[in-house]
Amino acid sequence: MSNTTGNDPLARARRFSVAPMMDWTTRDQRAFARTLTRQALLYTEMVTTGAILHGSPRERFLGYDEVEHPIALQLGGSDPGELAECAAIAEEWGYDEVNLNVGCPSDRVQNNMIGACLMGHPDKVAAAVRAMREAVKIPVTVKCRIGIDDQDEDADLERFIAQVADAGCEVFIVHARKAWLQGLSPKENRDIPPLNYPRVHRLKASRPELHIGINGGIKTLDECRKQLSHVDSVMVGREAYQNPWLLAGVDQALYGEPGPAVSRHAAARAFRPYIARRLEEGAKLNHVTRHLLGLFQGQPGGRRFRRHLSENGHLDGACLRVYDDALSLVPESCARQVETA
To answer: What residues correspond to the site Interacts with tRNA (predicted)?
Structure first.
């Protein structure tokens, strides 16, 4: 399906993105992702407006490496003034897009009127989007669910999209599950509510002028291609993190261009200078390398690689030697090359 957002410079990058995930899509994970894909749009973890406006140092919440572009900052909040101020700060910091979280189901964020609970308040989301768009020139997008609790997946979702689109939002990434804020934990909300891909497909059909992306339960590039016949973009979450080698096939399969990594070992070696730089900055080895633990999933020696990093990366003074030793435990000749399906 062709994108309908015309002059949006991020339209091509949005074709595939890695979902924002708390504690997972850190700056280190995103830098590693760039050894696997040049094209995909990367997202930060959700950052609350309070953290940006009152946290210190701001670098802790907004810092990133230039290699991460194109990159979007996901914001959590509901106050239009605060969100507009944070969007302006994101633009100053060089982010390519700012995204409003209307999908997180955790109790903590609900209590602060953040995340999926906002689906019950489309007027608040519309006011926030309007204020953010007035404050910045970069795109303002929304990530939401198909509904919450007892909402009607058809009428209520259409009403939400219409009201927020009228405020100027042209890009929606829709997690194809409801969020049950009463009765299910955040973890259960990732799996128990049934996926309803056809509902997102119908949304795109009914609003062809909008960019509609889909998220939830997608695990292969073949699935991504099938979804792209119905919607404008695909966002992949846990699978892209737990099986990062998936990203190595994205550029060829979905953009028609060769990716940067020809093998898992090549990606690991390409990431080595970044690790060295982070160690010089005072980061602990395991804080950086934890994002690579799934790189050799299913490969001979992959379990030994994970174990060596897990058992030694946290020790005081752990250095690149630990990383190199872990890598040596995986026979390079056995590691499969890039997959595009």
So the answer is: 101, 187, 190, 303, 306
**Rounded Cα gap, residues 134 and 129, in angstroms:** 9
Closest C-alpha to 244, from 226, 225, 270:
270
Choose which CATH entry (3.40.50.1110, 1.20.120.1460, 3.40.50.1820, 1.10.10.10) describes domain 264-333.
Answer: 1.20.120.1460
* Residues carrying an active site annotation: 104
Q: How far apart are CA 60 and CA 311, in angstroms?
A: 27
Is 308 labelled a binding residue?
Answer: no
> Is 237 annotated as belonging to a binding site?
yes
Q: In the numeric block, which tokens belong to residue 53?
A: 């406006």
| 120-159 burial code (b ≥16 CB/10 A, e <16) | ebbebbbbbbbbbbebbebbbbbbbbbbbeebebeebbee
Going by the DSSP 8-state scheme, the letter that residue 186 receives in this structure is T
- pLDDT tens for 210-221 read 999 999 999 999
Over residues 263-275, the mean pLDDT reads: 97
d(CA 96, CA 69): 8
